[in-house]
Write a structure and sequence with these properties.
Layout lengths: L1 E6 L3 H12 L4 E5 L10 E4 L2 E4 L13 H9 L8 E4 L3 E5 L2 E5 L3 H11 L5 H17 L12 H10 L1 H6 L1 H5 L2 H5 L8 H15 L8 H8 L6 E4 L4 H8 L5 E3 L3 E7 L2 E6 L2 E10 L18 H8 L5 E10 L9 E5 L11 E6 L9 E10 L10 H19 L2 H4 L6 E3 L1 H8 L30 E3 L9 H16 L1 H10 L1
Parallel strand pairs: 1-2, 1-12, 2-9, 6-14, 12-18
Antiparallel strand pairs: 3-4, 5-8, 6-7, 10-11, 11-12, 13-16, 13-17, 14-15, 15-16
Helix pairs in contact: 1-16, 4-10, 9-10, 16-17
Length: 491
């Protein structure tokens, strides 16, 4: 019998496994696919790798979550298969091209030259200041459990000065604070802001508080990295050849007898004292034995019903002259995508060094409303229309794509994500950081089942590498005294 079994090798599950192992726990990790990373992973087709979704890596700056993780694991960042990229994204909106540079002043000049407003500098200084305050206060709320009145009271007193100085930023929407800084209604500027906010918070500016929006608007001012070989290679570099990481191992059911969990898989039954599920708040109940099930998943589906999936295109291009010399592009379009309900899409291009037989992979991803693909008739026909819509917009803004030789184009929909990830309805990106989901009613990984916990992008504090890793820190600080000591030694 082991101390822990981690079910799911997404970011949260893999990080939980590594941290538990680092404090001497006997741990197993089961992942049903043949790669780690989940929605932030990498699959292969005809020898070419494709990132599953939008592939940006952030959080390695000093004292940010990935930096802290590497310090705890005693891993030197310089051995990782990564390179810093700048600009991290090139955004196309209207007739404008905006390079999102790391340097704040350069980044601001790009924005101000495309969207000139008298109070722009004042606005963006406020955005940066708010974001920096949030990052510097990152660990002060840990450990956090809104289900515990004692913990909530403690955190309120502990963070009194921060909360008091950011009342307006935390309570008001991004829209209500940003609008007064604009000289006039600027359609393209608003679309630019919304596209950046949606990409990082899963919300539009009228749904998210200003504080969270600021972190999204300035994430390109953090160090952004490209991962050679695909996003999964980042986790692979951390895990190495660990025989306790069991890929292609599907968990069928979890039961409990005499205080011991039995994890039933396609490779046998394994016993453990505790279970960590890298599942979502909407579907973790699906693998529980009837004796363990409760109505929590159903309640979560009703309470946290505003969710996104993704629509994706995967193909490779032959680009001998390296005409696609940036790794990330975001295309913002005026017309709503009728097949997704979105107004933008994100393009990830592999590095020249990652070419296979002269071809480098391209992943295009966009937010997608799940109901657009539920019970849809003529499914294959709809996929073709989706593909044509996105390609038309891509060729319009980045014409070089049109004439480059391409492999066959694969199309992914919410159904695809549901089939491969087994996430509820194919959800991607976790819970939107909506103002109505305050941190005090945001779901956490503490389950009402003794010895069972959740990690991933659907629990506090949210999605992306920084958010998910922070969520793992939060859970382990509450359940492992040894980790508590290690963590505070490294921050």
């Amino acid at each position: 019998m082991v101390d822990y079994i981690v079910v799911g090798g997404g970011i949260g599950g893999t990080v939980a496994y590594l941290l538990l192992k680092s404090i001497g726990k006997n741990v197993l990790l089961f992942e049903k696919l043949d790669y780690l990373g989940g929605c932030a992973g990498t699959f292969r087709k005809d020898g070419i790798f494709y990132n599953v979704g939008a592939s940006t890596l952030v959080g390695l700056d000093e004292k940010l979550p990935l930096d802290t993780l590497l310090k705890i694991l005693k891993i030197d960042k310089n051995i990782l298969p990564i390179k810093q990229i700048d600009p991290s994204i090139v955004v196309f909106v209207g007739d404008k091209r905006i390079n999102r540079y790391k340097d704040f002043d350069l980044s601001f000049e790009e924005i101000n030259s495309n969207f000139p407003h008298k109070k722009n500098r004042e606005l963006w200084n406020k955005i940066l200041k708010t974001s920096n305050q949030n990052w510097s206060n990152l660990y002060n709320f840990l450990p956090f459990n809104p289900k515990s009145p004692k913990n909530v009271i403690h955190q309120l007193f502990k963070n009194y000065h921060y909360l008091l100085s950011n009342v307006k930023e935390n309570l008001l929407t991004a829209e209500s604070i940003i609008k007064p800084y604009l000289d006039r209604w600027d359609k393209d500027y608003v679309k630019f802001l919304n596209s950046q906010i949606l990409m990082t918070t899963q919300c539009y500016w009228n749904e998210v508080n200003f504080s969270f929006a600021c972190m999204g608007l300035t994430y390109t001012n953090l160090s952004n990295y490209y991962v050679f070989g695909g996003m999964s290679e980042f986790l692979n570099a951390l895990v190495g050849n660990d025989e306790n990481v069991k890929k292609k191992t599907k968990v069928i059911k979890i039961s409990k007898e005499s205080g011991v969990y039995k994890v039933h898989t396609n490779r046998g039954v394994f016993e453990t004292k505790r279970v960590i599920l890298n599942k979502t708040i909407w579907d973790f109940c699906d693998i529980l034995d009837d004796s363990l099930k409760n109505d929590l998943c159903l309640k979560n589906r009703q309470k946290y019903s505003k969710i996104w999936s993704s629509a994706t295109l995967y193909f490779a291009v032959k680009d001998d002259s390296n005409l696609l010399d940036k790794h990330h592009y975001q295309i913002v379009h005026d017309e709503e995508n009728p097949y997704t309900g979105s107004y933008s899409f994100f393009v990830s291009v592999a590095d020249d060094k990652d070419k296979i037989n002269g071809y480098k992979s391209v992943t295009i991803s966009t937010h997608c409303k799940i109901d657009r693909w539920e019970n849809v008739e003529n499914y294959q026909e709809q996929k073709e229309k989706l593909k044509e819509f996105i390609l038309d917009k891509l060729y319009e803004r980045v014409p070089v794509f049109r004439n480059l030789p391409k492999t066959d184009i694969m199309v992914g929909t919410p159904r695809t994500f549901k089939r491969y990830t087994e996430r509820y309805k194919g959800t991607v990106g976790g819970i939107p950081l909506m103002r109505s989901y305050t941190m005090f009613n945001y779901p956490v990984g503490n389950l009402p089942i003794d010895g069972m916990f959740l990690v991933g992008d659907s629990i506090f504090p949210g999605q992306g590498y920084p958010g998910v890793v922070l969520g793992v820190f939060n859970i382990l600080l509450q359940i492992e005294r040894d980790f508590h000591e290690v963590f505070y030694r490294h921050i």
